[in-house]
Design brief:
The protein has about 180 residues and is mostly beta strands. It folds into two domains: about 90 residues, SH3 type barrels (Roll); about 80 residues, SH3 type barrels. The chain contains two helices and 13 strands; from the N terminus they run E-E-E-E-H-E-E-E-E-E-E-H-E-E-E. The strands form two sheets. Strands 3, 4, 5, 6, 7, 8, 9, 10, 11, 12 and 13 form an eleven-stranded antiparallel β-sheet that branches. A two-stranded antiparallel ribbon has the order 1-2. A hairpin with a 5-residue loop joins strand 11 and strand 12. The longest helix is centred in the C-terminal third of the chain and has 9 residues. The relative contact order is 0.16.
Length: about 180
């Protein structure tokens, strides 16, 4: 039996080695947007990003600079330093049993949050335990370096807004994170 396989944009079918998964995402830094693949035993990009490694090993497909120049780096491998990542937008992940609608999330609540990262704004749902005090929720969210926003709306520096199923934010680049007050 072979490894997990999935279809990715422009690449056709790519098989991952046994026990590994191929994830595709856009990795956004202050100066670059890197569309790349990652091979990992993890099924979710957020789990991969929250590992203890200091960098992400990627197979870059395309790199776009802030000036709009696009570079084809599909024949290369690269490291992205996690501390430089502002946020990550997953493009494809294997179907996981613990997706936000799955049983693995049943003990979590959704909190509609607002976040500012440099010239980007994100509004989306953050999944966390049931906290009655928003201060405790904020402290709990600080424990994760990468925080996933589901059903997100991403506002770009040019003012355009696009819906995204998931945006994974590097907590260290957050200038502000706003959580809802309790409704008692």
């Amino acid at each position: 039996m072979g490894g997990a396989s999935l279809y990715t944009r422009d690449l056709g079918r790519q098989d991952a080695p046994e026990g590994l998964n191929r994830l595709e995402a856009e990795f956004v830094t202050e100066h670059l947007t890197v569309e790349a693949e990652v091979t990992s035993p993890e099924t979710r990009m957020s789990d991969y990003l929250n590992s203890s490694a200091q960098s992400v090993e990627v197979h870059p497909l395309r790199v776009r600079t802030t000036s709009g120049t696009v570079h084809d780096l599909s024949e290369t491998m690269a490291h992205l330093t996690k501390s430089q990542l502002m946020f990550v937008i997953p493009i494809s992940e294997p179907q996981a049993a613990d997706a936000p609608d799955g049983s693995g999330w049943a003990w979590h609540l959704k909190y509609r949050c607002w976040a500012a990262l440099g010239r980007y704004l994100i509004v989306g749902d953050v999944h966390a335990e049931n906290y009655r005090d928003p201060k405790l929720l904020l402290r709990a969210l600080e424990q994760r370096q990468f925080l996933a926003f589901s059903d997100a709306e991403l506002t770009y520096p040019d003012g355009s807004t696009k819906p995204k199923p998931i945006v994974i934010v590097n907590h260290r680049h957050l200038e502000m994170l706003s959580v809802p007050k309790p409704r008692w």
